[in-house]
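Researcher: Next sequence.
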Amino acid sequence: MAPEPDPYAALLADLADEHAALDEVVRPLRAEEWGLATPSPGWSVRDQIGHLHHFDGTAHLSATDPTAFIAQRAQLLEHLTEAGIDDTTLAFARAVPPDELLAAWRQGRDALLAACATLGPKDRLEWYGPPMSAMSFVTARLMETWAHGQDVVDAIGGARRPTDRLRHVAHLGVRTRAFSYAIRGMDPPLGEVRVELAAPSGASWEWGPADAADRVRGAAVDFCFVVTQRRHRSETELQTVGPLATEWMAIAQAFAGGPSPGRSPKVG
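Model: Next structure:
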């Protein structure tokens, strides 16, 4: 009998593939294209990759030296009430040529993968919210890579084909439903929401009770766009049934940090 597949090893492989897919997008860019504005206000293509580089680095620190990470986190959080948090997290990216940033991002993400490979899926790691299991920690890095990669794709007017790696992003989106309320000082509603998504491969992905009255239905990529706030819901074909589903999709936030207003709908 063949051994059961290792979900954590598969997740690490998917993160490596997500890194490689974004690398394919940015590698051919000319130096001036790294300065193109992305949909994130005030952020260029350079900043998007710089953000990933910085937080891959702090993730590596959390995985290898939790005490040092906690000290660095405290220092960073001091800047949350200041306008200069980008000066801390994006300083390196804005100071070096694109080819040096690209090389540093590659080295940092490889180091992160190597460090995470030494962990067990249930090992707990410090982060910028509550501690997370290694499984959730790596999933969050994949989500960040995909989401910031989408900003880069949008900036250069490109396109990329969705893959079933989006299951990780969608799963995180479902898992962070209560978080989306909590960071806004709201009590999460007690009712359940059923999520039914069509995967890029044609498979069906489902979460929540089959008899739930409230539902979210649509393409997995549209759901991922909404929960990572890369598209306003009105720009997708996502369908909601019931007030709980509709309210959730209006505030969904799968990433850490304070409450984000999300993307505004396009006009015209």
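Model: The chain has eleven helices and six strands. Residues 9-157 form a domain with the Four Helix Bundle (Hemerythrin (Met), subunit A) fold (CATH 1.20.120.450).
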